[in-house]
Amino acid sequence: MTLVTETAIDAAADPRDRGGPAQPMLIVENIKKYFPIRAGLLNRKVAEVKAVDDISFYVMKGETLGIVGESGCGKSTLARLLMYLIERDEGNLVLDGDLVGEKSGVPIDALRRSLQMVFQDSYSSLNPRLPIEQSIAYGPKVQGIKPKKAKEQAQDLLGKVGLRPNLFSQRYPHELSGGQKQRVNIARALALDPRLLILDEAVSALDKSVEAQVLNLLSELKEQLNLTYIFISHDLHVVQYISDRVLVMYLGQVVEIGPVDKLYSNPKHPYTQALLACRLSMDPDERVDAAPLAGDPPNPVNPPSGCRFHTRCPHAEDICMAKAPALGDVLKATPDQHLAACHMAQAGSGHSKAPATLAELFNI
Ligand code: SF4
Fold this sequence. Notes:
With 364 residues, this protein is of the alpha/beta class. The protein contains 13 helices and eleven strands. The two termini are 43 Å apart. Iron/sulfur cluster (SF4) binds next to loops.
């Protein structure tokens, strides 16, 4: 898999680029979203679901950041926060060096043009009453592009996603297969000329052969159009195939982040180790008898104290219940650094399996 530094785009390749390849495309800083739970006659807030709880990371230009975790870990809420489809409670987004916000450098409309999203359900994402060419041309027309030009662009995009315009442009969504519909959704997302695509379980509903074709198409489009991807999926095989770096979420927080090769060959967090051990294998010798990850994730309304994974972790000790392990400063880390929020990965944390500190090594 290509390293992040090698995939960073040439700044001169995109006239919209401001800070060059060393400046991240998107910085997400301490973002939080708690959903209130209301009850009673007065509809008072009685609790909150901590869907996204103080998450920070960045995405370099031209890279693919994979986001993995069990369902309910907050991956999709995070994607919607990035698109401003839901309001965040706290935190900042910085797009190519400029803060995003109503009164800041990048207005929200401009962010929504620069970031586009492709969802899992390819059929309900499309208007069943519109031929697909019109579905693709709709966004540009709303943005003020003349209908003739929007139609030409739509036909061009159909060709780019591998659907011959003369055969497909007048078809309706119900006349297409799942893979073809997802190609249309990708074309529609590209119609506003975005710089970053958020792909939320975008290939999860496709069967394996179609999934491979759509993944290859995504790789080709990324090269052709200098795109950056955030690829959200519960399928660790697919994430390994497409990502440069991977971020692992558990109960609304980041527990591990690092380059795909390092993270897959040497996962540091027991949750990532369990997820990787759960992967299905075609090799009968690699059958798993005991489930590596037992039980359901705890209730995000009342997450466990200390390390949120301690209720399911085979290595949990008293320190894990008493103190939350720190992930480290993700925003200051370089893309090739591998960080994990686990006491076992931190020297001197008090966990019996933590590496020794320098003072312990030299008996000072
Ligand atoms: Fe397990 Fe403790 Fe590490 Fe949490 S901090 S993952 S409970 S060893």
